[in-house]
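Recall that a protein's primary structure is simply its ordered list of amino acids. Everything else, from secondary elements to tertiary packing, is in principle encoded there. The following example makes that idea concrete.
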Amino acid sequence: MDDGRRPGQLTPERPDVLTAFRAGLDADRGPAIVFGGTVLGARDLAELSDALAVGLAARGVAAGDRVAVMLQNVPTSPIATLAAWKLGAVVVPVNPMYRAGELRYLLDDSGATVLVTEPQLYVATVAEAVGDRGIDVLVTDPRDLASGELPVALRVLPPGPEPAGVDRLLDLIGAHHGETPEARTPAPEDPALLSYTSGTTGPPKGAINTHGNVAFAAAVYRAWMDLGPDDVCLGVAPLFHITGAVGHLAVCLVAGLPLVLAYRFDADETLALIERHRCTFTVGAITAFIALMNAPGAADADLSSLTKVYSGGAPIAPSTVEAFETAFGAYIHPIYGMTETTSPSHAVPFGERAPVDPGTGALSIGVPVPETRCRIVGEDGREVPPREIGELVTQGPQVVPGYWDKPEETAKAIGPDGIRTGDVGFVDEDGWFFLVDRKKDMIIASGYKVWPREVEDVLYEHPAVREAAVVGVADDYRGESVKAFVSLRAGVDVPTEDELVALCRDRLAAYKVPRTVEVRDELPKTATGKILRRSLG
């Protein structure tokens, strides 16, 4: 694709997030965080994170130390992140749904010395995971800094316990109110985040997202989505995920956008937040947008302000994009990236539409973002011609230098020519990239390759299907056979298994057609809304 079809290239200057945020303060920025009835201005955010940074330093946190943050989308999450960065410490985002064993592994692997979490999580999980490791734990109730009408999830959440012997985050901030830490400017190679992968091919690995990686990725969002102070960001993605950390928090700090948070995603509440705050931009998993379409209040919702909509992290069926645009008038722009590319490596520039490949029916994930080189390679590692299927390899300023304390794993995945993503796809003659599926999810049925995504896209064409997932199951005759799982939209006629199988038979070769279809109320998902195929079978 000709660069002339893309928005202007990024400027050579990419200040780190802290420097950009301080520059915004000089320009007297407005609101930074909106949470229920609370609005924190940028100066509030700066002062609160300054006080916390001084408090953490007094407790021994220094440059290079790891600070784990195990919180939902609440104001204290960005405050803790900024405080750690102001000391040169590294933030370890932790999924609040982790159990004790999972958390214990992350704490041991990262060597975190501080953990910020909720009182409820401390009692249920953290105390067992921390044990006698000598980790300094700070708790913050999700209602801390909240006022007025609370987010839906917090209205029914019972008051948290007061764990004995554990200090409160707000008390530490209050003890150092008005104090400022020694000014520090991160170097591009300094680690900003230690983001742990999902561990689908072994124990989770800590991807080292540097300040240079984060600054570049935030600049990509700002330039390609045409974001500025007049925009309002809706925080759909969790801040403990790379999408939320970069596509919400970092870009809002850099570009001066207010960030609207709501603890956890709730479809009807999200519709109301978009209307109330006139949100213009968001990025999240396609399951979130499917949920918005199926929410009880969808028919009456006014989403006219929401024009800059992006989705990544999971395959997107063209029929879903069409349905969302019909319902709300907003086009969902595909975007693609991974933890190891600090979020975006490909995107559909704002204002353009992704092509649909006529052969596979797949929707393009976009074109490489500026300064990024992407190739499709065969088994021998050599680049293949357009439309030939191979593995996607990405090289650019957003690619992490490696995994934390895992040189062998780093050498396997990341080299001078980029990172081998594990995603399989092709590029067309115009430079648009298409994903077929994850390499490890391929099904071999009677010796034929079946990519689950192709079957799922067909199932999404049925008007009753809300979500679909396809997996391979053991078959004594075929080796593997194709099985589909679906959840259904409310208020529709329930299709029979034969009806769904017949739809696939009309669109697909016989070996790709599901032998069985199972209907479930909900399909298992990650915290970011990505359907977990590996949990089905």
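The longest strand covers residues 465-475. Confidence is low (pLDDT under 50) at residues 1-5.
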